[in-house]
Automatic annotation (TrEMBL), chain B:
It comes from Deinococcus actinosclerus. This is Phenylacetic acid degradation protein. Gene3D superfamilies: 1.20.1260.10. PANTHER family: 1,2-PHENYLACETYL-COA EPOXIDASE, SUBUNIT C (PTHR30458:SF0), PHENYLACETIC ACID DEGRADATION PROTEIN PAA (PTHR30458). Pfam families: PaaA_PaaC (PF05138).
């Protein structure tokens, strides 16, 4: 999974003078990997032979899991992580979580066992059809 | 999403800038102190999943504090780390609600519920701020806060409708915390002008929506009783004796290694 698969890269521009500007958006505001991501972007562009690199972050529009591309969703599922459901235009403050499918057998007969998982973007589930415990991406 | 026309940082008057700086600091202080209290459960929560959940929530709250303080810095405020780690209890402007010791699990969940609902409703309204940098922060943070509200609302319900013991503890927590919650809706100096210009949301309107939401959940759904709240509350510059020891612990490493850049 790359940051482009995740839909985090919002813009890349190259100026006439050869300066490369990459604009990305954080997934969660408290994500501890932000500094690493920023440095990795800069290094990746430098590795292409570019010397003048600027990495910017933007909050607008806010990152949504709807930007994770189809190919990446399928790879998440194959890895055993339920991809996020479409966020839709639901009520802002809702007490019920979105439906999630078991990444192994496809059943909707799943239970959330923890609403926060090992990283900010995931929750824990167990499938009552095939008994598989799994992680699911939050719809943000 | 739709974006509203923006007022850029340079167009704020001096008075507006001062008031907004104060507001951002107040918002960040609540997040920082509550995150620290939540962090005290790391390794001590009743079950592993909740240990992880509360650490996640604390991490989000610190993320929001970072957003507020970074914006404050563009308005002339100090470096966010400086603000967090080098101010003493006299300069912190958090509510007493968030500084009270973590108590038992019911206390922590009721407090988090009262706080998360107020934050979520405030942020939702703040997405319509005429000041674009604030509207952007609100649009980002509210998406995260939604998960906190879901989580803590469920916990409060589970505890209130659980055993006689969990119900007793939940009611006791609510009775102790409720008077302090009103402090979340105290305006800062100069807030009225910012509200009039659409930069800040109308705090009274948010307070009314919050009262409605928490009453429906706590009273109608969970069967708890709301105690009377005192008519007036001291300001955010008046703290309990619990803030100083909290800051001493939270700031110890930063103060011992003021030049550290990589942790």
């Amino acid at each position: 999974m790359s940051i482009t698969d995740m839909g985090m890269v919002r813009d890349v521009t190259v100026s006439d003078a050869g300066r490369v500007t990459v604009t990305f958006t954080p997934t969660f505001s408290g994500c501890p990997a932000l500094h690493v991501i920023r440095d990795s972007i800069e290094q990746a562009v430098r590795d292409l032979g570019v010397t003048d690199v600027e990495v910017r972050s933007t909050l607008t529009p806010p990152w949504t899991t709807d930007w994770i591309n189809d190919d990446a969703r399928e790879r998440l599922r194959q890895y055993g992580i339920a991809p996020p459901a479409p966020t839709g235009e639901g009520q802002l403050i809702q007490l019920d979580a979105e439906p999630t499918r078991c990444p192994r057998c496809g059943s909707l007969n799943v239970r959330m066992t923890a609403s926060f998982g090992p990283t900010l973007c995931k929750r824990m589930y167990v499938c009552d059809t095939c008994r598989e415990p799994f992680e699911g991406f939050k719809s943000v | 999403m739709t974006t509203t026309p923006s007022i850029s940082g340079t167009e704020l008057t001096d008075t507006q800038t001062r008031a907004l700086l104060l507001k951002l600091t107040v918002l960040a202080d609540d997040e920082i102190i509550l995150a620290h209290r939540d962090g005290e459960w790391t390794g001590h929560a009743p079950i592993l999943e909740e240990d992880i959940a509360l650490a996640n929530i604390a991490q989000d709250e610190l993320g929001h504090a970072g957003l507020y303080l970074s914006l404050a810095q563009t308005l002339g405020g100090s470096d966010p780390d400086q603000v967090a780690f080098w101010r003493g209890p006299d300069d912190y402007r958090n509510t007493r609600l968030v500084e009270l010791p973590k108590g038992d699990w019911a206390f922590t969940m009721v407090r988090q519920f009262l706080y998360d609902t107020s934050e979520a409703l405030w942020l939702e309204a703040a997405t319509r701020s005429t000041y674009a940098p604030l509207a952007e922060i609100a649009a980002k943070a509210v998406r995260e806060e939604k998960f906190h509200v879901q989580h803590t609302a469920l916990w409060v319900e589970r505890l209130a409708l659980g055993t006689p013991e969990s119900e007793r503890r939940t009611q006791a927590a609510l009775t102790e915390l409720w008077p302090h919650a009103a402090q979340l809706f105290q305006p800062v100096e100069g807030e009225a002008e910012l509200t009039a210009s659409g930069i800040l949301t109308d705090l009274n309107a948010v307070h009314a929506r919050w009262s409605d939401l928490v009453t429906r959940h706590l009273v109608d759904k969970c069967g708890l009783t709301l105690p009377d709240a005192p008519a007036t509350q001291p300001g955010r510059d008046t703290h309990t004796e619990h803030l100083a020891p909290l800051l001493e612990e939270m700031q110890r490493v930063a103060r011992q290694h003021p030049d550290a850049e990589v942790w």
